[in-house]
Amino acid sequence: MPDTNEKFGRSSVFYDTFERRGAEEKSTHYCPGCGHGTVQKMIAAAIEEFGIQDRTIFLSPVGCSVFAYYYFDTGNIQCSHGRSPAVATGVRRTLRDAVIIGYQGDGDLAGIGLAEIIHAASRGENYSVFFINNAIYGMTGGQMAPTTLLGQRTLTSPNGRDQFNDGRPIGMAELISVLPAPVYVERCSLSTPKQVLKTRLAVRKALRYQIERKGFSFVEILSPCPTNWGMTPIQARTWVTEHLETVFKLGRLKDYDEDVPVPADPVLHPIDDQQMLTLLTAGGIPTVKTSVEKRPSRSFKIGGFGGQGVLSAGELMAACALSEGYRVSWLPSYGPEMRGGSANASVICSDDPIGSPVVDTPDVLLAMNGPALDAFEHTVAPGGVILVNSSVVNQKTRRTDVSYYAVPATEMAKEAQLISAANVVMVSACLAVTGFLSIQTLRESIPRVLRKKAFLERNLGLVDATITYLQQQEII
Amino acid sequence: MNYVEVHCDECKGCAVCVSSCPHGCLEIGDSLNAKGYPYVRFIKQMRCSACGLCFTVCPEPAALSVYTSKEE
To answer: Is A77 exposed, middle or buried (0-12, 13-18, 19+ CB in 10 A)?
Structure first.
């Protein structure tokens, strides 16, 4: 209608469309009646009002709100679980004018990352934390969180939370407010329109204090989770009033005191190249040979299962190449398993700057186990080298256009009573058959890469044993 | 004239706006939107004061827009 103004509408701080679930998508991924959307709209409105969109960095947590970076057209960092305060600290120390928004749920903030938030608050980091408390872990299906109420039934407290078994709910706002450094701590709620409006004021205040460089602000927001609570959105809001608010009392626990001076600016000053060099080479500078003529680049793929030293084999290779004056990239790839999962490392050595560390067609493949050979043998560049750990790998390669070598790396390592050093055998053999880097460089590099120094002699012994083996087999 | 515009495909039918409107201007209709949710309808336009509570409590960025008369 031409005679009307839009008084309330979509904030320009949100992207026009949320592409995660397809082009032209305009609604969030949140369940109907979720509190996240309501809070994020308030934050967006406040960012717009203060005109800080271009210098805002929104820290997405892990949890249902992990995808906030699909919504906020600001700077975004998606933090590891619970580590948002550490990220905020880093951003604050490097970007003086950034407006940092830490957005965390109760699983993320009060559970996984409790230590981080306490210390960031205690340091009085100048940023604003919005703590969404719905008394459960939402994204993973409604498990008990540190904030779960006594008697509350969740997936992991099917008989209700028991104070002796599970402890009592943690009041994060109270906990933060007793620290000396935070300037503003308030607990709000989304239970009723009145409380929502109060929350909106608190969100604005927390951001305003940060812009004025006053220090750390913490706003806890009691928020409904209709899906995991098994309620309608309206019932969930009533439950917030009747249960959450009776345990977690609403109100301002701490506010900025005009008489207290604003803390000093914590931004670190950049250091120059010489200082950086001194810092990075505190453990000694490796001897670096430089060459006049450009040498050909080489790319390596090392594959095996986790625990075989796949990643450290790559590291060792990279350290050797660095010593010989190459530019090097090392890209590890591994699953969540500590042992037994598959792992691989990509290493590129070049005299030119390396654009991407990804190795699609390696010149050399070190296959520490059968699956690694299966996965990567077809990717090896024609004329390349495939080296397998024949103690573990029974099959031969199907490739006819590459050089193929087999070394019983695991058996040799076992003989040297250092089974974890099969990777050293593989790297030694690789360097010996390709002649790409010198064995002397390898000997010098092992002490720099090796973490257990007590095994140094045995590792060096394995280098010699490998050379002897290759000579006996008339491979070299 | 004040009014609330509903972008029905962005509404998830949670009805939080319906329960928040001080003048009873909103209700959940019977039909379903493209995502399969029943969506909110704006009724009783004469009573809307453009207070914006429905927009403020709504979890979606732009399921609702609130318009107000231009000042003379």
So the answer is: middle
